[in-house]
Here is the input.
Amino acid sequence: MIRNISQITDVERLKCVIDDASFFVLTCHAGPDGDALGSTLGLAHYLKGLGKEALVIVPDAYPDFLAWMPGSQEILRFDKHREKAEIMIAMSDVIVAMDYNALSRVDDMGPLIEKAKAKKILIDHHLSPDSFCDLCFSYPNLSSTCEVVFRLILAMDGYDCLTKAACECLYAGIMTDTGCLSYGPCTSELYILVSLLIQKDINKDRIYNKIFNNYSEGRLRMMGYVLYEKMQVYPESHAALITLSREEMNRFNFIKGDTEGLVNIPLQMKGIYFSAFLREDTEKDLIRVSLRSQGTFPCNKFAAQYFHGGGHLNASGGQFDGQLSEAIELFEKALGEFGK
Ligand code: 5GP
Ligand code: MN
Here is the structure.
């Protein structure tokens, strides 16, 4: 069994914190994805199995294709139930920050978490975590926060009491953050971990279908439109760009999550190692930026240098204050000068 994720003293400290506490609030970044929901819900199931109270609070809406996750019915949305969420955060013994490395990524929840008296634990796989937590389990070399959670549970000898529901959530997060084990740090150990999850009798085919074969007609047509009419290719830079305005998204009856994964598609092209996706935010007056690469191209440096963002080497994001056309202009300029 894989136990050596971290200094055993840290795991012992985590165990002590868990033993001493009874009410846990588990939080993730705004715009929760499969890893964010999978890790918070997976850990919530584990803690409940230990007889603890655990509540998942998310900053805002998550995509429909994740609503099958066991426990999702009990998730509290901060943007919809702010007062209740504030009380729960203030009452908690422990707050776990999952799948994010800075309070800026949880929007208005940030200041509340910061001032809460609870012990704070960070469990994450993004680079350079801010120091707002008492205990920090940050592993940027691991595929997903779900992988970190699972390894921590193994290190605490918790495998036997992990339920099928917990394993389904953790499995889903690993699958969504690695494109079904096709990119990111998919080590041989990760395959062993996945096999341990599958041993808990999870229905991996059902999970795949729920996540990847569950698109609306509008989403599929939007994908076709974007690739056929909106994709710019820059062969000398081995790069591609796709863009979407709010009006275009509305045309395809856009719902949250419909653009998830779009940015990866141009990387399927021969000779393209860097893909960018610029889109108008559906609520705020800003441009959302998603970047993906293959190999050594540092998306995170590109995002930090030009789009107030960051992330992983091969998957990063950021934002731009201004019009979509200006963001495109900046992107093209950046492509020409980056790394020179
Ligand atoms: P996505 O393209 O899916 O929105 O984001 C991909 C990854 O980029 C995220 O997992 C996260 O690591 C990172 N990321 C996205 N937006 C931001 C941002 O505004 N700031 C930072 N530091 N990282 C971001
Ligand atoms: Mn993640």
Observations:
- The CA atoms of residues 325 and 337 lie 19 Å apart.
- The chain is about 40% helix and 20% strand.
- The pocket of manganese (II) ion (ligand 2) is lined by residues 35, 99, 125, 144-145, 177 (CB under 6 Å).
